[in-house]
Specification:
about 375 residues, alpha/beta, Rossmann fold, 2 domains, 7-stranded mixed sheet, 7-stranded parallel sheet, 14 strands, binds NADPH dihydro-nicotinamide-adenine-dinucleotide phosphate
């Protein structure tokens, strides 16, 4: 019998929903690169329901208990009375989501003597110390592609929101005003602007594709160049380095994983390379940017706006300066956990668990670490400390 610890975000303050705004989800046959959606043998949940909060349990309880396993579901992950820490010593599997990450540090991994696999119900396993997972031969897997489009949609929304000054204008309505000039004194069109993505993986490329009809000039930088046909079709300009790309862009969006090569890549020095009045959207990871450098750049006007949904740590403390800095459009970490995305990552987590318990290989595209080394998609997209 295995113990599975599932760390999920809290239920809504008004309680777990009894009804939903819509009755179904659109049917998606395949991801845009041809990858199949998750293929568990069965699911025990209704797609379109709230699966990512503690009462949703990712729809896993029936399945796991039918196999005789013990499932612990909690949102308590930090502090001296953390339920996660209480169960780590004999947990075989830890599952969490980047929105409410169980930070699987080297210390926690050291204590978890029985731990065999860490699953990210979503994308991005930077909350796990990959070096420690490698050292202890713990498998790390995530549900690649499950919410990439969800995030790309959020990026487009945030770019439009910042450039068109949507949130302050909405606030004028809420305050009972009709203050056109206050609303538009910072409002522009994105048409004709230059937008660049750091990384053109699943999310970055999807953002570029979605922005093309807005008649923006599209730029990207990545470790591997996209096929020439894709560059031609979208009219992309490739840059050999991100530093070279920043200066030509009115809008920059970050879509790369957090790893030693990318941590704090946005800092006081690199922000000087941006055009004055550029907008920065970061839905990838909070630690890609130096927290206080972002605040300084907004206060000085070097950045005209900053939006995103990723912070460090998560949940962000009440006094996190990004809550109150000027011209921001931050959300809590929600872009990849729409009800649509939840159905996919819950099914993907179930698929990974079925493979694990039935001793079948986990899909290569889900693997980050296996057999004491970076593996699968992890070997392609991540790096470890040198
Ligand atoms: P992909 O693996 O498809 O894309 C990541 C891309 O980043 C790859 O093209 C990779 O390049 C590139 N890359 C890696 N390191 C660098 C670097 N140093 N400089 C430039 N490019 C680099 O992942 P996704 O697009 O699906 O997701 C990207 C990230 O977005 C995730 O790692 C995660 O952190 C974040 N995310 C956020 C979510 C949210 O809810 N806010 C949800 C999902 C993801 P190459 O392959 O060429 O080596």
């Amino acid at each position: 019998m295995a113990k599975i610890v599932l760390v999920l975000y809290d239920n809504p303050v008004d309680g777990y929903p009894k009804t939903y705004a819509r009755d179904d989800l659109p049917k998606i046959e395949r991801y845009s690169d041809g990858q199949t959606l998750p293929t568990p043998k069965a699911i025990d949940f209704q797609p379109g329901t709230l699966l990512g909060s503690v009462s949703g349990e990712l729809g896993l309880r029936k399945y796991l208990e039918s196999l005789g396993h013990e499932l612990v579901v909690t949102s308590s992950k930090e502090g001296s009375d953390s339920v996660l820490d209480q169960h780590l010593h004999d947990a075989e599997i830890v599952i969490s989501q980047p929105f409410w990450p169980a930070y699987m540090t080297a210390e926690r991994i050291e204590k978890a003597k029985n731990l065999k696999i860490i699953v990210t119900a979503g994308i991005g396993s930077d909350h796990t110390d990959l070096d420690a997972a490698i050292k202890h031969d713990i498998t790390v897997a995530e549900v690649t592609f499950c919410n990439s489009i969800s995030v790309a949609e959020h990026v487009v929304m945030m770019i439009l929101g910042l450039v068109r000054n949507y949130i302050p204008s909405y606030q004028w309505v809420m305050k009972g005003g009709w203050n056109i000039a206050d609303c538009v004194a910072r409002s522009y069109d994105i048409e004709g602007m230059h937008v660049g993505t750091v990384a053109a993986g699943r999310i970055g490329l999807a953002v570029l594709k979605r922005l093309k009809p807005f008649d923006m000039h599209l730029h990207y930088t990545d470790r591997h160049r996209l096929p020439e046909s894709v560059e031609r079709e979208l009219g992309l300009t490739w840059h050999a380095s991100r530093e070279e790309m920043y200066g030509v862009c009115d809008v920059v969006t970050l879509n790369c994983p957090l790893h030693p090569e990318t941590e704090h890549m946005i800092n006081d020095e690199t922000l000087k390379l941006f055009k004055r009045g550029a907008y920065l959207v970061n839905t990838a990871r909070g630690k890609l940017a130096d927290r206080d450098a972002i605040v300084r750049a907004l206060e000085s006007g070097q950045l005209a706006g900053y939006a995103g949904d990723v912070w460090f740590p998560q949940p962000a403390p009440e006094d996190h300066p990004w809550r109150k800095m000027p011209h921001h459009g931050m959300t809590p970490h929600i872009s990849g956990t729409s009800l649509s995305a939840q159905a996919r990552y819950a099914a993907g987590t179930r698929e990974i668990l079925e493979c694990y318990f039935e001793k079948r290989p986990i899909r290569n595209e889900y693997l980050i670490v296996e057999g004491g080394k970076l593996a699968g998609v992890g070997a392609h997209s991540y790096s470890v400390k040198k």
